[in-house]
């Protein structure tokens, strides 16, 4: 189970690390052009904030558990990712983007797996 959870954490880190980097440095027009169309629905300030939160979450989903320092931050970071996906999916649905909604749902489910698995390990 530990290997599956690490694979899920790595997947989340890659997905949100890429997204967070893009939202932190690219213009809204460029974000929309590369497929992050939800960025066009919020202000650039909000987009930058989300990007920074995603980058912090990327560190939070890997480092605390890997370093055994404040490991409860790992399921907390995954919870943050789940919330972001719950907020993003309706935006993409409204924009008639089923592919992006599907991606949101996959990332939500992977986040839930990490939340569930790492919380269970913390409680034992």
Low-confidence region ranges? none
Instruction: Quickly count the helices.
Output: 5
Count the beta strands: 0
Percentage of residues in strands: under 5%
Structural class: mainly alpha
What is the number of independent domains? 1
Order of helices and strands: HHHHH
What separation lies between the terminal Cα atoms?
14 Å
* Biggest sheet architecture: none
Radius of gyration: 15 Å
Helix content: over 70%
Shape, please?
Answer: globular
Mean pLDDT score: 95
Question: What is the gist of this entry?
Answer:
The protein has 124 residues and is an all-alpha fold. 82% of the residues lie in helices and 0% in strands. The chain has one domain.
Layout of helices and strands:
Blueprint: H1 2-25, H2 28-33, H3 44-67, H4 73-94, H5 98-123
Helix pairs in contact: 1-3, 1-5, 3-4, 4-5
Q: Could you walk me through the main structural features you see in this protein, from its secondary elements to its overall organization?
A:
This protein is 82% helix and 0% strand. It has helices at 2-25, 28-33, 44-67, 73-94, 98-123. The protein has 124 residues and is an all-alpha fold. The radius of gyration is 15 Å and the shape is globular. The protein contains five helices and no strands. The longest helix is centred in the last third of the chain and has 26 residues, at 98-123. It has one domain (2-123). The model has no long low-confidence stretch (mean pLDDT 95).
Tag the structure with descriptive keywords:
single chain; 124 residues; mainly alpha; 5 helices
């Amino acid at each position: 189970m530990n290997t599956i959870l690490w694979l899920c954490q790595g997947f989340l880190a890659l997905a949100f690390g890429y997204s967070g980097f893009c939202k932190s440095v690219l213009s809204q027009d460029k974000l929309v052009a590369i497929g992050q169309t939800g960025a066009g629905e919020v202000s650039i300030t909000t987009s930058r904030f989300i990007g920074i939160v995603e980058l912090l979450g990327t560190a939070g989903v890997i480092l605390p558990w890997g370093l055994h320092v404040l490991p409860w931050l790992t399921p907390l970071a995954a919870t943050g990712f789940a919330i972001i996906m719950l907020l993003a999916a309706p935006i993409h649905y409204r924009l008639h983007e089923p592919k992006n909604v599907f991606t949101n749902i996959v990332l939500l489910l992977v986040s839930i797996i990490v939340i569930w698995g790492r919380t269970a390990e913390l409680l034992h």
